[in-house]
What we know:
This protein is an all-alpha fold.
Amino acid sequence: xxKQKAGMAAALGTYILWGLLPLYWNLLAAxxxxxxLAQRACWSFLFMLLVLVITRRWQAFKRDCRELWRDKKRxxxxxxxxxxxxxxxxxxIWAVNNNHVIDTSIGYYINPLMSVLFGVIFFRERLxxxxxxxxxxxxIGILLMTYELGKLPWISVALALTFAVYGAVKKKLHLAPFSxxxxxxxxxxxxxxxxxxxxxxxxxxxxxxxxxxxxxxLAGTGVITAVPLLLFSYAANTLPLNVLGFFQxxxxxxxxxxxxxFFHEPFGLQQLFAFGFIWAALLIFTLSESLHHRAAKPPxxxxxx
Length: 305
């Protein structure tokens, strides 16, 4: 029971921290999204190396590297994962710093449904009737938003698509999360380091002695990337998937509230009506997943005397 409580606390911390990320990116609003991304890649890699040493996962990391080197197919999947998470991070940072926090919330609300869709496409998983209803309701919500905006909410779709495909690739890759994020950020470095050095030679840079607070915050992107990952890893190893699934909606909910009350983005009855379809879709989807996991759980046997 104590372990499960700790797991729930870790899950709560994970998704609240992810939900509060817009506040951190807002502190970096003076910097461009590409500068923040490059700095985040560099500092995340360094911090993940430190995490591997502290958590005594260095030997496991080296073993994973050797296996990936031998298996070229998995190596290509890792490159694909790095490209996808780079696009996801860039879109998210740009969206927050350009007053589209609510759009990011929509993206991560529909992400679980998108992940199931890719499960059908890539892994031939079957859709239950309730999940089909969820997809239909979510599609109606997106169509309503498209009608209201006069264009497809591309930020929401891009975030949901990149993260869902990223999840599908990671499922095929089957790599420990600590090794995965370390190697993914390592693969970003050949572009991130030269770009950071180049930028530091120009007036557009916000990293250095002239900007002490921004420099500290840019360095801190490694911490805010790794800490939720550490918490998530613990929660995922402690809690059943159906319990963990309930927590995943905390992050977009926190982001939505921030978008409305902190960033003061427009959110009227029309947006609420469209959101209603997405929330209904997620409610049906989550209940369906919970019931499925309960049905799949083997019955407890009576204790032997």
